[in-house]
Write a structure and sequence with these properties.
Two copies of one chain form a homodimer. By secondary structure, the first copy, chain A, is of the alpha/beta class. Chain A is built from 13 helices and 27 strands. In chain A, the strands form nine sheets. Chain A has a six-stranded mixed sheet, covered by helices on one side. A four-stranded parallel sheet of chain A has the order 13-12-11-17. The first copy, chain A, has a three-stranded antiparallel sheet with strand order 6-7-8.
C-alpha cells in the first residue's frame, strides 16, 4: 500500500520528513512555504522541548508544559492543505525505490510504504549503554516523556520505600541516588535530586530524614561538564558541592544491577568502588537512532563510531542528493567562511539550524540552483546546575570574544533563554509561573505518581 | 514484623486509617487534633479530586491540578509528629488480633502487620463489569489517574489511527466512541468527547474529518442521569443532543470486545444491536473495594449486593465498635432527626461527612461518651454535561424546597462549586486559568501521549 499522494496526481514534489524534534519541525515550517506535498512521520503525537525534560523527571513541571501535540504546533502549516502528519514508526528506507517504510499500526505486520522525491531524516538519538544493554532496566536514561515519568516514579517511590524499610542498610540504599555521566543532563538531574532531598521533602517523613539522602554524580572523565573550559568546570563543581551533590570523577562504571553500581576508580584515594544505590539514572551515553543503520544498508552511506550518518557539506548523503540527514543523527561539519570545517555539536540550536539549511538546500535543488554547505552559528554554551546555580560561555560578537559567567547571573540567563525558546505563548506563561512558585515555596508541583505498583510488585528487581 | 509504635510505648491510642480519599482525609484531619498516634495507609502517593478525573481523561487538565501528594496535603498534620503515612496495599484485616495486614513492598512475600486500637476503613470502590471481567481490557473504567491516562491515550490515538487507516469501515470504527453508562461520569465523558471531535481537533487532520466522529452514550436504564428527576433528565438529554452525543437508552450491553459492543435493545424501534467502536469507556458499574470481603471474613460483618459493608448507625461494625467503615465502602444509613433512616448515596460530600462523624465518634469512645448516629446533610445534586451545559437540583433551606435549574446557570454553579472544593489555593488558580483558556480557545492543554506504542504494537487487540 502506498499512501502518499503521487507527484503525478498533485504535480507537487513529495517531501517526507522523519522525526519532529528541533530539526524536523524547522524543516517542515520552512518547506510548508513552498508548493510541496509534505508528509511528517513521528513515533509520538508531540514535539518535545528536550532541554527541560529533566524538570519533568524531577516533578517540577508537567509534561504538557514542555511539549505540544504536533498537529497543534503545526496547525498553520496543516491549513495549507499540503501537510500530512502521521503517527508511526519508520522501520526502514528503500533508497532505490525512494520509499520510507512505516510499521503497521496494528499487529498485522503489513508495512506501509510512503514514496518521496525528497527525504529529510531527523530521527535523533537514543541512549547508549556502551554494550551493556542489560543496565537499561536498572538505570533509565532521559530522552522521552515516558523516560521522564519512569525516573520520576523511581525517585519519589524510593523515598516512600525507605520510609517503610526497617533495615537500616536497606533504607540507606533506597536513599542513595546515583547519576551516571556529568554532562549537562547529569548535572541538572543531580542538582535537582539534591534540592528535592534537602528542601522539597523536608519534614514530610516520620521514620526517615530526607536530608540524609545521598546524591552521587559519577563521571568517567576527569571533570564535570567537560565541554566547558576548565575554570568553568571548576565553578560548576563548587556549585554542585554547595547543593550537596557528591561528585566522583575518573570513575568508570563497570556494573549496574538491582543493588547499585560498581566502578573502576583510577584515583585510588577516593577508595570507593561499589555503591548500594536503589535509584540510578543514566546520563552518560548517546547513540544515533537505529535508522542510521537502515540508511547505511540502503543508501550505502558511512556511519561514525556513534552510529551517526556521515553527510556531505550540504547535509545530503553521498550519491543521494535527494536524502538529507540532520540533527543528532548526522555526523555533520560546519563550514565557516574562513578556516577548516569543524564537527557540529549535538545541541538543539545546531539541529534547528540544520533543519533550516536542509529546507533551503531542498528549495535550491528544486530551482536547479547549487546547494550550499552548512554553517553552524555557535552562540555559546549554557548549563544549569540548580537553584541560582549555572555556568555560561556566550559569544559576544561586539567584543569579538567569549564571555564566561556563573552563579546567579548565569542561572537567570539560562532561565530567560529557556522561556524564550519554549514553543507556545501559553507554555511560556505556565512555566514561568511554575518556576516562580517553585522558587519561593521550594515545592515541586508534579509529585504525583499514577502507577505506584510496578515498583513494588511482581518482580525480583526492586527498582523495576 | 509489627512496625507501628505500640500504645504502651507512646501512651497514645493507635488509630489506623486505610485509604486517603475524601473520607479518609477528613478523618485524619479531625483525629490529628487529639493526642493519638495515627497511621494512614494508601496504595498511591496522592489524594485525588475524583469529580474532575474525567477532565484528565479528556486531556483538559493535567494530573497534578486535581491531585496532590498526601504528605504535602497533610503537612500540617505531619508536623504534629503523631501521623505516619505509608504507601502500601492493605491486603487483609485481622479483627481478632487488631492488626492491619499490608503487602510487602518487594517480591519477598513478607507481610507487614500494623496494630490498631481503632481502625477506620475508607478504601472506596472500584469498577464492576457485572461478572464480565473480560470486558475490562476493552473498556477501561475511570477511578484512578492511571485509568485517566489510559483513556486519554486511547481517545487521542484513535484519531491518529483513523488518519492512517485506508479502509473506510475500519476508519469509521476508529472514529466511533462508546461510553457505557449514563450516570454523571458517563455523561461528562460523552459530552467532552463530543467537544474534542467537534471543536478541539477540527482541521487538524488531512484524511479524516474529526467532526465525523460518533459519540454514543449507551444506557441500560430508561433515561440519562437517573438519580435526577424526570424533567431534569430530559433537560440533560436535550443538552447532550445539542453537543452531538447520540444517546441510546434501554440498551443493555451483552458483549464488549476488540471490535466494539453489542446489546439488547428492548426498544426495537432503535434497531441497533451492534456497534463497531474501537474505543469504549466503562462508566456503568461500581463495586466496593475487596477489603469489604476481607472485613466480612475477619470481623463477621455483612455485605450488601454491591459488596459494601453494612454498618451500625454510628458507622461502626456490629460487635466491633473499634472498627468504622466510611465512604463508598460503607452501606450506611442517614438518621435524620425526624423520619425513617435513608440510605446514603455514594457521593463525595457523603464520604467527607462520614469521615468527620467517624472521627467524632472515635473521640467520644475515647472519652467514654456514647457515639452518635450518622446524619447526612444533602445539599443537592449537580451534573455537568459539557460547555455551558449542566443540570442542578439544590436544596435551599430558606425556601424549604429544592430548586432545579439547567444550562448556563447550572454550568457556572458547577464550575464555582468544583473550584471551591478543590484542595490547594494553587490548584484552584491553575484549574480556573486552564478552564478560561480552554473555554475561549477550544484547546485542550494535555493532549500529549507519553507512550503511543502499546496501542499499536505486539497485541492482537487493536485497543489494548
Amino acid at each position: 500500500m502506498n499512501a502518499s499522494p503521487s507527484s503525478a496526481a498533485t504535480g507537487r514534489p513529495r517531501v517526507v520528513i522523519v522525526g519532529c524534534g528541533f530539526g524536523g519541525i524547522e524543516a517542515v515550517r520552512a518547506i510548508a512555504r513552498i508548493d510541496a506535498e509534505i508528509t511528517l512521520i513521528d513515533r509520538t503525537n508531540h514535539h518535545l522541548f528536550q532541554p527541560l525534560l529533566y524538570q519533568v523527571a524531577t516533578a517540577g513541571l508537567t509534561a504538557p508544559s514542555i511539549s505540544g501535540p504536533i498537529r497543534h504546533i503545526l496547525r498553520r502549516e496543516m491549513r495549507t492543505g499540503r501537510l500530512t502528519v502521521l503517527l508511526g514508526e519508520v522501520t526502514g528506507i528503500d533508497a532505490a525505490q525512494r520509499d520510507v517504510i512505516v510499521a503497521a499500526p496494528d499487529a498485522s505486520g503489513r508495512e506501509e510504504r510512503i514514496a518521496y522525491d525528497h527525504l529529510i531524516v531527523a530521527a535523533g538519538a537514543t541512549h547508549s549503554y556502551f554494550g551493556h544493554d542489560e543496565w537499561a532496566v536498572h538505570a533509565p536514561g532521559l530522552k522521552t516523556l515516558a523516560d521522564a515519568f519512569d525516573i520520576r516514579r523511581r525517585v519519589l517511590l524510593a523515598f516512600e520505600r525507605a520510609e517503610r524499610e526497617s533495615d537500616l542498610a536497606e533504607r540507606q540504599a533506597w536513599l542513595t541516588f546515583a547519576v551516571v555521566g556529568a554532562g549537562p543532563t547529569g548535572v541538572e538531574m543531580a542538582g535537582m535530586l539534591a534540592e528535592i532531598a534537602q528542601h522539597t521533602l523536608q519534614d514530610e517523613y516520620r521514620r526517615i530524614d530526607s536530608r540524609r539522602a545521598r546524591v552521587l554524580l559519577v563521571e568517567g572523565g576527569p571533570r564535570v561538564l567537560g565541554a566547558f573550559t576548565e575554570p568553568m568546570s571548576r565553578k560548576a563543581l563548587e556549585q554542585l558541592d554547595e547543593l550537596g551533590v557528591e561528585v566522583l570523577t575518573g570513575a568508570r562504571v563497570n556494573r549496574i544491577d538491582a543493588s547499585g553500581l560498581g566502578f573502576d576508580a583510577p584515583d585510588a584515594s577516593q577508595g570507593l568502588t561499589n555503591i548500594a544505590a536503589r535509584t540510578v539514572v543514566w546520563a552518560a551515553g548517546v547513540a544515533a537512532s537505529p535508522l542510521g543503520k537502515a540508511l547505511a544498508a540502503s543508501a550505502g552511506c558511512t556511519l561514525d563510531r556513534a552510529g551517526r550518518v556521515v553527510v556531505e557539506p550540504d547535509l545530503s548523503l553521498p550519491g543521494h542528493p535527494e536524502i538529507q540527514v540532520i540533527g543528532d543523527l548526522a555526523a555533520a561539519h560546519s563550514h565557516p567562511k574562513r578556516g577548516a570545517p569543524k564537527p557540529v555539536p549535538g545541541v538543539s540550536p545546531a539541529a534547528k539550524q540544520m533543519g533550516r539549511t536542509a529546507a533551503a538546500n531542498l528549495v535550491r535543488r528544486l530551482r536547479g540552483e547549487p546547494t550550499r554547505p552548512f554553517r553552524y552559528v555557535d552562540y555559546g554554551a549554557l548549563a544549569t546546575i540548580g537553584r541560582r546555580a549555572a555556568i555560561a560561555s556566550v559569544d559576544v560578537p561586539l567584543l569579538n570574544r567569549q564571555v564566561h559567567f556563573s552563579g546567579m547571573p548565569a542561572w537567570l540567563f539560562w532561565l530567560f533563554v529557556h522561556i524564550y525558546f519554549l514553543i507556545g505563548f501559553r507554555n511560556r506563561l505556565v512555566v514561568l509561573s511554575d518556576w516562580a512558585w517553585a522558587y519561593f515555596s521550594f515545592e515541586r508541583q508534579a509529585r504525583v505518581v499514577a502507577e505506584p505498583r510496578p515498583a513494588f510488585k511482581g518482580s525480583a528487581d526492586p527498582a523495576a
